[in-house]
Specification:
Elements lengths: L5 E2 L6 E2 L3 E3 L4 H14 L3 E4 L14 E4 L6 E5 L4 E5 L4 H10 L2 E2 L11 H6 L16 E7 L5 E4 L5 H7 L8 E8 L1 E2 L2 E10 H6 L1 H7 L2 E6 L5 E10 L8 H25 L4 H11 L3 E6 H5 L7 E9 L3 H15 L7 E6 L14 E9 L5 H13 L3 E2 L9 H4 L6 H11 L8 H7 L5
Parallel strand pairs: 3-5, 4-5
Antiparallel strand pairs: 1-2, 6-7, 7-11, 8-12, 9-10, 9-11, 13-15, 13-16, 14-15, 14-18, 17-19, 17-20, 18-19
Helix pairs in contact: 4-13, 7-8, 10-11
Length: 436
């Protein structure tokens, strides 16, 4: 982000706001909101730019929380930790580790701000575990007029359930209190398995592990499984050289090389995908939890992800595979499949049901609309809900029937942001106008 422009991680979302504010505390934030209100500008808030959608894009005032990134309080006895909203997940992991604490569940990227990750329903994987927002216990939020609210389950149940996954449509989150756990270790086992056999026993595999996910390169008949389980075994960390070789050289540089070659010669993609699967290899290691969860992601792509009822996971994967192969789509990035337990945040894609998340990706510089449109049609037919931070073409009209508590969220939105100060084109597309 320059002094006058903003862009997201994949570079496809850009804007030139009339003002970019970088407050260091709640007083400076209140001043920024006062200036925006006086100028009649709408406001959007940026975390670290890892959303693929236009949620941040604005020609009004853009507020960056990059300077509001401090740890405010840690109680090692209760595990309650209060942090400013702009802290990244990576910085949070490091701070918790110093206090002998850890987060219950994480995704595989730690560059997002905590507020941005929770506001979009970001998740890890684990059939008995819920998304990141379910780990919150209190949210401090500033409304457009500078009022600072503290939301929790007892003081404002509807506001609390709305604010946990809010898309930034209710106000500016200033701090978050989350429930951490005593630090723990995971054994991470990665390796290949036949795809069809994996799909036939998908439920059993997902339930057999604390955290289970699979990757599948189109045109291959092999799945790559990732199984992470708690353990009391001693840490077996990789050397820095080995970690660099495996994570950077083989995974990232290797994937980049295959992807670039496939982009240049699409007819080679089926063979390249099968080769990538064969050379992926296996690994088995024990480390502190966040080092097992998180992997560096250096290759640029764009992404769409849908949350579907868990029971329809294998059906969905087979349907996507069938369309890719029937249409000979040039897809050279793996499909990712993860699982979470249902939760009660009003706009959580996993609201009220155990969920399978299926994510599809397209390499930087390649056409994605055709593939994403086909997958989106399949997922919509399976009662799918899109990940709020990933690409999709849904609107408020198509989304409202998919969320049983849609009206309850809208009532909270009208109460906290009656003028629609925290809206933009994307918010109005997916949520409708304020007060609507």
């Amino acid at each position: 982000m320059s002094a006058s422009t903003w862009s997201n991680w994949d570079g496809r979302q850009r804007c030139a706001p009339q003002a970019i504010e970088r407050p260091r505390d709640v007083d400076e934030l209140r001043g920024a909101l006062d200036r925006a209100r006086a100028a009649g500008r709408r406001v959007r808030v940026a975390g670290s730019g890892h959303s693929f959608t236009g949620l941040v894009v604005t020609d009004g005032t853009l507020i960056s929380l990059e300077r509001m990134n401090r740890v405010l309080a840690v109680d090692p006895t209760s595990g309650l930790v209060q942090v400013e909203a702009g802290i990244t997940i990576g910085a949070l992991n490091a701070a918790l580790d110093r206090h002998g604490l850890a987060v219950e569940n994480l995704g595989d990227i730690d560059r997002q701000s905590l507020a941005g990750a929770t506001a979009t329903g970001t998740h890890g994987t684990g059939t008995r575990l819920r998304n990141l927002s379910s780990q919150l216990r209190e949210i401090e939020l500033m409304t457009a007029d500078g009022t600072l609210l503290t939301l929790d389950e007892r003081s404002d149940p509807d506001g609390w359930r709305a604010a946990r996954v809010s898309l930034g449509a209710l106000g500016v989150v200033t701090s978050l209190t989350l429930q951490a756990l005593p630090a723990y270790r995971l054994r991470g086992v990665d390796g290949p398995a036949p795809l069809e056999a994996t799909l036939e026993q998908l439920d059993r595999l997902a339930d057999a592990h604390d955290h289970f996910e699979l990757y599948w390169f189109p045109y291959s008949r092999t799945a790559l499984l990732r199984r992470n389980d708690r353990t009391d075994a001693a840490v077996t960390p990789r050397s820095r050289a080995r970690a660099h070789l495996e994570d950077i050289v083989l995974v990232n540089h290797g994937l980049s090389a295959f992807s670039r070659l496939g982009r240049r010669h699409p007819s080679l993609i089926p063979s390249l995908n099968r080769l990538a699967t064969r050379v992926a290899g296996s690994s088995d290691r024990v480390d502190v939890s966040h080092r097992i969860f998180v992997s560096p992601r250096l290759v640029r792509f764009t992404e769409m992800e849908y949350a579907i009822p868990r029971a329809r996971a294998a059906e969905a994967i087979r349907a996507v595979r069938g369309e890719i192969e029937r249409r000979r789509l040039p897809i050279n990035f793996p499909i990712e499949v993860r699982f979470v337990a249902g939760d009660d945040a009003l706009l959580s894609p996993a609201y009220g049901r155990d969920t399978c998340y299926i994510a599809v990706h397209v390499f930087d510089g390649m056409e994605y609309e055709t593939y994403f449109g086909i997958v989106e049609e399949i997922m919509s037919g399976l009662d799918g809900r899109p990940h709020w931070g990933k690409r999709h073409r849904q609107t408020a009209a198509s989304l409202a029937p998919r969320y049983p508590e849609w009206a309850r969220f809208q009532a909270v939105r009208t109460r906290l942001d009656p003028e629609g100060r925290f809206a933009n084109g994307e918010i109005e597309r997916v949520l409708g106008p304020a007060g609507g």
